[in-house]
Inverse folding.
């Protein structure tokens, strides 16, 4: 099948008796009607009409591209550019902007340097094998509390269990804006890891959250949040034993890595959150009220731990409780 630049079929290119292929221009599914002039292509986020060379919905990023009509296709240059899968903004792992591809608000990070370089040089060309982009890239979200809660809530509802523990981490990194005048902090999801079956924890094995990493791996991304399940107990029942004893302690794990830790119980509408920042805030306030308060003000958090601030000490357990919160599990979006 041959096409005019904006995707309209060249009817003379159809062999007599040939069956029309379901997928046509740019590999998109053709939604045919009994009125040929109304046929259109499904681009996932919007519908495209090849007869007029326009999408039938407004580009969600219209405000960022005032020079273009909100219904434009391929920036009005279909020979050199193309709207593909709506995978809109591509970045390298070092935060550099690579190019735009499609019309959605989705951001994707390419982990491998060689693929990122290839993407940078070829994103605008319609004949490039763009399927590589999905294989070597990871979806990213703007790092807002609302976005994190949505991702964590969806994960909690899909992974809560009475079996072996599961865990997943979020990783943050900063991206350079396309115009080079600012940065945007985003996060990506790590892989979900599952502990081996065990007779401990009432039948559920213990998981190592450190095994959760972005796929493909993104060098330089920093773990900021971890969510995990317990096969029993409630949302605030974080383990708090001395390091090396049984689990090694949820609380100690979060503090040693400086990450917020969420706990998903096997049932209920809430999950727990432990914040190392809140713990150190409570610990510092407690120690600074004492006889050597001025000395504690100068200490970094790591030294506070060695100066009687370890969370499994009995007199510090109230501080651990003060650093916990219940968080509602939202309906997946």
């Amino acid at each position: 099948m041959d096409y005019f630049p904006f995707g309209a079929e060249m009817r003379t290119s159809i062999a007599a008796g040939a069956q029309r292929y379901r997928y046509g221009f740019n590999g998109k599914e053709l939604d045919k009607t009994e009125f040929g002039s109304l046929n259109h292509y499904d681009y996932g986020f919007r519908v495209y009409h090849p007869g007029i060379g326009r999408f039938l919905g407004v580009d969600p990023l219209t405000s960022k591209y005032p020079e273009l009509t909100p219904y434009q296709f391929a920036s009005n240059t279909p020979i050199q550019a193309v709207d593909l899968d709506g995978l809109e903004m591509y970045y390298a792992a070092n935060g550099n902007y690579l190019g735009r591809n499609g019309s959605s608000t989705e951001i994707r990070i390419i982990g491998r340097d060689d693929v990122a370089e290839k993407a940078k040089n070829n994103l605008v060309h319609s004949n490039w094998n763009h399927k590589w982009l999905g294989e070597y890239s990871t979806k990213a979200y703007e790092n807002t509390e609302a976005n994190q809660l949505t991702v964590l809530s969806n994960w909690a509802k899909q992974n809560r269990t009475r079996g072996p523990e599961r865990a997943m981490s979020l990783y943050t990194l900063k991206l350079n804006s396309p115009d080079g005048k600012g940065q945007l902090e985003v996060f990506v999801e790590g892989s979900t890891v599952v502990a081996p079956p065990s007779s401990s924890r009432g039948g559920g094995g213990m998981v190592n959250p450190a095994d959760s990493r972005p796929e493909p791996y993104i060098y330089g991304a920093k773990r900021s949040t971890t969510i995990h399940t317990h096969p029993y107990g409630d949302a605030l029942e974080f383990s708090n034993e001395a390091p090396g004893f049984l689990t090694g302690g949820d609380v100690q794990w979060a503090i040693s890595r400086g990450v917020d830790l969420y706990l998903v119980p096997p049932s209920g509408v809430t999950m727990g959150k432990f914040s190392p920042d809140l713990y150190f805030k409570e610990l510092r306030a407690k120690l600074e009220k004492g006889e050597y308060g001025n000395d504690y003000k100068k200490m970094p958090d790591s030294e506070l731990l060695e100066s009687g601030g370890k969370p499994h000490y009995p007199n510090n357990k109230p501080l651990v409780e003060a650093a916990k919160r219940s968080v509602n599990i939202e309906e997946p979006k």
